[in-house]
Amino acid sequence: MGQVEDARSDAEILAQVRVHPEEFANIFHRHYDTIHGYLARRIGPDVADDLASEVFLVALRRAAAFDGRDREALPWLYGIATNVLHRHRRDEVRRWRAFQRLAGREDAYVDVEFDAVEDRQAAAQFRSCLAAALSEMGRHRRDVLLLHAWEGLTYEQIAHALGVPVGTVRSRLWRARRMVRELCEPTGQQTGDGHLPIDRGGSQ
């Protein structure tokens, strides 16, 4: 017989953690793969193992402070993960610069879909210019861009994750996208509808 899925919301589980710490295992099993994937995309799969463990240790310590009005814990966990990444931002920048040099290699690791760029060479060129933009832009803009375009968070979820107003999220995202466009549009790295692949998150 398969394991029965826990129908409780994240908020309901976290409300029990102070009295029953073992309940946190449900949060870990629900969201570990997603958070690990986010970290791996930003800093590499090897380092992501340790950082993901750190994220969930921090979350366990802070479980009592979780805002129960938010039924899903994932935006909160993304915020913790992003803060953990900030202590390794130099490593992340070095990773993007290295990826820029290796972008043409098919074995270069980055878990991002480029189906919208049909030509393989064009996709490689876009990966290179995107890596250049990500290595040069400030960490706050990079955080917002990647949480929205890659992780699919809404403006409101990003604002909650990062502890900033929604207007700040919009402003940072606009500036980050502009920087990518300035680097990538001159090389023609657009999809058939004239958009950059990094715009696929849309406006929310």
Low-confidence stretches: 105-117, 191-195
State the end-to-end distance. Answer: 41 Å
Q: Kindly state the mean pLDDT as a whole number?
A: 80
Broad structural category? mainly alpha
Q: What is the helical fraction, as a range of percent?
A: 55-70%
SSE order: HHHHHHHHH
Cα-based radius of gyration, to the nearest Å: 18 Å
| Largest sheet composition | none
Give the number of helices.
9
Set out the fold topology.
Blueprint: H1 10-17, H2 24-43, H3 45-61, H4 74-86, H5 89-102, H6 120-136, H7 139-149, H8 155-162, H9 166-184
Helix pairs in contact: 2-3, 2-4, 3-4, 4-8, 5-6, 6-9, 7-9, 8-9
Could you characterize what this model shows?
The protein has 204 residues and is an all-alpha fold. The chain is 62% helix and 0% strand. Helix 3 packs across helix 4 (74-86), helix 4 crosses helix 8 and helix 5 packs antiparallel against helix 6 (120-136). The radius of gyration is 18 Å and the shape is globular. The N and C termini lie far apart (41 Å).
